[in-house]
Design a protein that fits this description.
The complex is a heterodimer. By secondary structure, chain A is an all-beta fold. Helix content of chain A is about 0%, strand content about 55%. Chain A is built from no helices and eleven strands. In chain A, the strands form two sheets. In chain A, strands 2, 4, 5, 9, 10 and 11 form a six-stranded mixed β-sheet that branches. A five-stranded antiparallel β-sheet of chain A has the order 1-3-8-7-6, with no helix packed on it. Chain B is mostly beta strands. Chain B is about 0% helix and about 50% strand. Chain B is built from no helices and eleven strands. Chain B is globular, with a radius of gyration of 13 Å. The relative contact order of chain B is 0.34. The chains are: A mainly beta, B mainly beta.
Chain lengths: ~110, ~110
Amino acid sequence: KNQVEQSPQSLIILEGKNCTLQCNYTVSPFSNLRWYKQDTGRGPVSLTIMTFSENTKSNGRYTATLDADTKQSSLHITASQLSDSASYICVVPNAGNNRKLIWGLGTSLAVNP
Amino acid sequence: EAEVAQSPRYKITEKSQAVAFWCDPISGHATLYWYRQILGQGPELLVQFQDESVVDDSQLPKDRFSAERLKGVDSTLKIQPAELGDSAMYLCASSFGGSNYGYTFGSGTRLTVV
């Protein structure tokens, strides 16, 4: 079954600290993996898209990694800011089923002062 | 930066009433999606358009929901009659060429049915 699982479910860190969010997927065949940030009451905003050949991609203070062999991805946030408080969602298209997006349940991150 | 426009931003309606949401995708994006997101859950695809044609509406409750994209540009999602369980965030997203490309989401319409 095509699934996307994220951990931890929730995380609280202090402003300025780093954190790493995990995403494991069983979607096959694999084409790409996306990380979205979703603020409460807002639509998701794309952070990165990782393709099969990419191991690491950075977007400002966000760095995503992908290990296609172990089907794992991580999102590392450095020097966290209060505005980083949001839900971070890992999404993988199901390449064989009309390319529907398989959504993880997200990690809820709270950055405290 | 180009955005997906959605309106209204918030909508409160009584059950059994009709409600409609509007979405204007990024110019040139052929693929348009409507998602429903219940609080605390991931978005659920309701309907996918490629230009003006419906590609996937398998999860759309067709007895009460309808969607159209007549000219292959903006789109309308309608619910008639609304039920209490329809309370959710309704998200529109567009993509240049399908799921291998990035999606851009609108800010959504928060629907509350009372």
